[in-house]
Amino acid sequence: MNVLTEAATTLRRMTTLDNPAIARVIRQVSAEYGLTADKGYTVADPNLDELYQLYSQPGHAYWVIEQDGKVVGGGGVAPLTCSEPDICELQKMYFLPEARGKGLAKKLALLAMDHAREHGFTRCYLETTAFLKEAIALYEHLGFEHIDGPLGCTGHVDCEVRMLKTL
After folding, report:
1. Which tens digits make up the pLDDT trace of 96-105?
2. pLDDT tens digits for range 44-82
3. Cβ partners under 8 Å of residue 80, min gap 6
4. Where does the record place the N-acetyltransferase domain (predicted)?
C-alpha cells in the first residue's frame, strides 16, 4: 500500500526486492559524507544488505522512497536494543541528493513515529553526526531534543549527536 504518491515519487514499505537498492543508497550517502565503516556508522552494520529481513520483525518498519521507479531514500524505526521497552529508535534515514529538500524525510519520519506510537512506544531516540546539519535541523523541527549520553546498544560510537522525543 502506497503511503504517499506524488507525480513519480512514492513512499512505501520496503520489500525484499529493495534490499540491494537501499543498501546502495546508504553506501553512496555514507561515502558522500565520509561516514566510513571503521568509525561504526551504518555502513558497517552486518545486516545492511538484508534490511527487509531485519525490519520485518515485530515493532520494526522501514520505508523507501522511489522516484521514477528508482529507490532514492529510506528510513525506519525499531525497538532500541538494550534499553527500556518504551523507547524506539529512528534508524537509517538516508536520501540521495535528488530526494533532498522536498519534505520527504519529514514525511517519512512522521510516518515512522506514527508507527512507533501504534506499537506502544512512548519515546523515540536517534543518533546522528554533526556532519549532517540538515538532518539535525529536521529532527529539531520535529521536536527531538538533544541529550547528553547515548541510550541503548547501537554500536554507532562516532554518532556524537543524540536526540530524544516524547511521542
Report:
1. 999 999 999 9
2. 677 899 999 999 999 999 999 999 999 999 999 999 999
3. 87, 88, 89, 125, 151, 152, 154
4. 9-167
**How is 24-87 classified by DSSP, letter by letter?**
HHHHHHHHHHT--GGGT-GGG-TTGGGHHHHTTSTT-EEEEEEETTEEEEEEEEEEPTTS-TTE
Q: How far apart are the first and last CA of the chain?
A: 24
Q: Are 158 and 41 in contact (CB under 8 A)?
A: yes
Residue 52 contacts residue 19 (beta carbons within 8 Å)? yes
Distance CA 77, CA 52 (A): 12
The 8-class DSSP code of residue 18 comes to G
Whole-structure pTM over 0.70, yes or no?
yes
Q: What CATH topology corresponds to 2-166? A: Aminopeptidase (3.40.630)
Which three cell numbers mark 146?
538533544
CB 157 within 8 A of CB 120: no
Q: How far apart are alpha carbons 74 and 79 in whole angstroms?
A: 17
Q: What is the grid cell recorded at 162? A: 543524540
